[in-house]
Amino acid sequence: MTLPQLNFLAILPQIIVTAAALLVLIVDAVDRRGAFSHRALAWLSLLGLLAAGAAVVWLALQGGRQSFQDMSVADGYSLAFSGVILLAAVLGVLLAKDTVNQFTRMPGAYYALLLLAVVGMMSMASATDLIVVFLSLEILSLALYVLVGFNLHEARSAEASLKYFLLGAFASGFFLYGAALLYGATGTTNIAQIGHALNAGGGNSLYLYAGTALLIVGFGFKIAMAPFHMWTPDAYQGAPTPVTGFMSVATKVAAFAAFMRVFMLALPAAQDTWSWALAILAAVTMTLGNLAALRQASLKRMLAYSSIAHAGYALVGLVPGTPGGAVAVLFYMLSYALMNLGAFAVLVALERRGENDVQRGDMSGLADRRPGLAAAMAIFMFALAGIPPFVGFFAKFFVFGAAAEAGWIWLVVIGVINSVISAYYYLSVVVGMYFKPQTEAAPTATAKGRKAKDKAAPAAAAPAPVADVPALATSQTAIRLAVILAAIGTVAVGIYPAPWTAYITQAVQSIFGG
Amino acid sequence: MDIPLLSIIVFLPLLGSLVLLVLRGEKLLKSVALLFSLVTFAVSLVLYFTWTAGEAGMQFQEMIPWYPELGIAYHVGVDGVSLVLVLLTTFLMPLVLLFSWEGVHEKLKAYLVLMLLLETAMLGVFVALDLVLFFVFFEASLIPMYFLVGRWGGPRRIYAALKFFIFTAFGSAFLLAGIIALGFLYKQQTGELSFDLLKLTAVGVPLGAQTWLFFAFAIAFAIKVPVFPFHTWLPDAHVEAPTGGSVILAGVLLKMGTYGFVRFSLPLFPEPTMKYAPIFIVLAIIGILYGALVALAQKDLKKLVAYSSVAHLGFVMLGIFTLELQGLSGAVLQMVNHGLSTGALFLLVGFIYERRHTRMLDDFGGLWKIMPVFAAFALITFMSSAGLPGLNGFVGEFTILTGAMKYGTAAAVFGTLGIILAAWYLLWAFTKTFHGKLDNPANQQLKDLNLREIVIMVPLVLMFLVVGLFPNLFLDKINPSTEALLIQVRGSAAVAQDAGVAAAPSALVEVK
Fold first, then answer.
1. pTM of this prediction?
2. Fewer Cβ close by (within 10 Å): the C or N end of chain A?
3. Distance (Å, rounded) from C-alpha B394 to C-alpha B390?
4. Does A404 sit within 8 Å of B181, measured CB to CB?
């Protein structure tokens, strides 16, 4: 018996990020006297992420490699998704850098968990075996369950964490059950081999369809697809905002990577069925997310519902099951990472101490107070609404185009109508920032409320003994950097897409052909 | 292809807006913005004079792949129809900026930046030959206008801005779905994905898909024009918009809709265009009569002008869907005329509003005595809008009605009725404002137009006369292109017959 071929280089990015996570933990543990500030931990995390990014680029230049006996792979596809995940993580760390010590006393644990979640996500994108998909799913989920509950001033944060955990555990069970059924049908958990077995006419069709349905539930939960989206608004609202921004993007990216790989490589035999199922689910998800977002006063909650809607749009790209659709989904993930994290970065910049929420009313007159921030937010809102020339428009064009090519015109029509509905609530943010004056009475009233809440909050780490409630972030530099990066990306990738789309197309072709 | 003339014209204002971002000081900002708009106008004049007359096809084409995976290209070019609209846009913009010289103080920099961004978007719409590129500019023009109305508008500006945006975006959704479907239908036919108008028309859209695609496009354009009954956003947007915004909205933005019909609906969907033309003729006539009647009932001068827009664009729609050469050429010319006349009307309303901060007709009367220069400009503009022979409006309306006559006598009769109504409400408004006694004490101290305001009005009045007396300066450029369009729609035989009489109406005017 030969030794199993363990090609560690293929998981180099995951190894680097794991090492960074451990290093953060060790530094935090050793440093009892606080010689290193929490900022040093942020820098360390950033360094680890950037190194992993370099490894991703290096691997991409090398060409694909397999490892662990074809259980994990570093191909163009997984590397492209990993790149987007790392981008989201970098922005996520930048958002936390100057706010983390406001909502927790354990910044070391925070960054370590965030990095471990990244490891799980990248592994999920690289997984070529259902077992590895499941393991990665658990790694990232466990880290996120804790991160969601990290805000110690907010009872809602703990509640959100518990909700997310209970429902997430259920979803994991569904996923595992589905994987087991597919194993029962084909005798293998390897994604490619399942596909071969099913294409050859093997397998019990009852197992196949039941397994497919259960996998849809499992993945659907992670991407926040209706009707498995119930956790999303509560978890997103309760979690510390930097976590919300990170997870709303990165979890979707990872889940979509595995979702597409499994469905397009393992389950083409059932494609007629799952295409229809996903088309209906996509239509429901978009519509439900957008209609619910219309009514939200809390911006975090609004963006939570908007993220459900965006899961629906991205799902449209998966419906046809074509390489063109996969390109569309991948491009969608890239653009969603830029515009959505940008929007969350603006929210973080606006948050105040002792508050975990920015209300729509808080945006009034922002253009006069902070013109740069308002302009960036306007760009993100227009991009999320799918207005050209921002990247969000082209992302939607890609997915709707892929669906149209396969003849799903009705789905495209539902998609574009949804875009109009969504324009209304995204624009209402712009209306507040630019067209409404800052309300005089409201801030004082809420400021009083905030102060009262500060006093009531037990063990408030650093209660603010100041007249006005100060911003949550102790310094705006890192957040500003995140906003600028995201804004530039949102504009530039839309106007000059050639390098990105070329790489993405190549990456998708490397595994799906076409 | 030596100099990318079109790209220079389209992106000069964008460059200007970027330059403005780093500048400070009111005077400098205003001067630089005006300079950029003037240079853009100058370059578009170069375009006009180097343009080869008598050719029907697209000239000055430029093509760069943009999203090669999706077959989207930066493909621009102008034919006679685009050419006159590009000129209209670049001509109006300096006047609007000059108007804003005094009126706008608050957030001046943002205002100017948005104006120039808007100019780039509008010019892009008129030169784009790739459907996706067109859509990008079409949608992008919403953003600056939305801010202009919402930020610098009147009391109900937020409602008006949002209504404007949502109405247009709703129509655009169908347009986008239609564009996507067109590209992939082309791929089914040829194996290559493309959204290039010239390629799509060369291959032809499959008959079975034409009808629903035609209506998908038509909804978007009909809302933009606006065709009755999609017009309800227009009075709100116009009344609330700042004067500069109104001028651009009426002068140029509305033409995006009619231009869309001419540029895309006609050549891409000839079958349904012919089949459903009667529907649009009827809607156009309803628009003409309804707009005129509602205008008659207005107490607010600006609202009156806004409803007159609905009526005038009804004429343009009537001309387009007669599918006769005179009708179509007249419609294109009338787009320019409406831009000039209605633009001028909004400017006049703006002048008086800046002085009195009211636009109610009842507040005025007898202004001729104290503002003779203003009254003179107003008179000629009202006459131009009403279609007095010798001025621009007459040529356009007469040509359209000639086309309508060939289409059906009833269409021409109702159209003529619209002209009579237009004369009625315009003269009525003129009488209420300028004649009678100067009985409102608040009006006693009104000052006449100053030099800057005269400088704004003079080019417009000159253009009334130029178009009115020498319409062939434009019709010569428009006719070959519209003829080619009609050949695409109706087949060559039917159009060749018309071509002989094409120049007749304009010749008639010149004799006068």
1. 0.89
2. N
3. 7
4. yes
